[in-house]
Specification:
single chain; alpha/beta; TIM Barrel
Length: about 280
Amino acid sequence: MIDEETPVLDNHMHLDPDHGRGIDAVEDFARLGGTHLLVVNKPSWYLGVEAETGEDFRPVFERTIEVVEEASEVLDGRAWPVLGVHPGLVSRLVDEREYEPEAARDVMQGGIDLAAEYVESGDALALKSGRPHYDVDDAVWDASNDVMCHAFDHGAALECAVQLHTEASESLPEVAAWAEEAGLPAHRVVKHYAAGRLEGPTPSVMSEKDRLEVAAERGEPFLMETDFVDDPDRPGAVLGPKTVPRRVRWLLEEGLEDAVRIAHLETPEHVYGIDTKATLGNT
């Protein structure tokens, strides 16, 4: 069982109090033993924002910060915002709004610039960027990599982590090398929706038992997530908010206490500089 001294962190969750379950989902997470959340802003267009400049992302980021504050009031630990630009925006700009890839890049880099301001002020913990997980042409791919590297530049300057949405892969050494070249240590690059093993960045492992078994066996730094999307139009999409606490309980029942310690104590400190143990008991 999860005891009251075991922090339980979901590293990648979306909350939409205006259109989805919002704090009700946080209460489900907390009821089963969840204590800490990293809340990533939803893609801007899901909130009705069709960005033309970086400043246009501000209401998306502000609403995310507001719901994080509400979530922290519910949790025995706390929540933190992760702000940035979903890499799928490049296709929305190029394919639907007829932007040139370079112009789309500029809009997205402007959004990263704004997100970095929130990290610098202490209002956000980390940045979100990446590149499409589907096939795109070379110009769009290059523009997407430019956006991602721009996030690495900010991560290096701010000494903060960068969460990535990328193609499915167990090997991203080139991406880790780009981060290192920018001055951002590779362990502070986090691949969200990861499998149980990953070369290069730190894996944020989708909390399915088979993936977690692989991560636990490796004994390397990893995080756990659900990618709960909080979208009423896709109620069964990805994993629900109760999943991480349930999987932590399962790991403990399987005698994998070391994996729980790695994912919920050591790796959050190593990657984000957060102390999940010291921040327990905030409510």
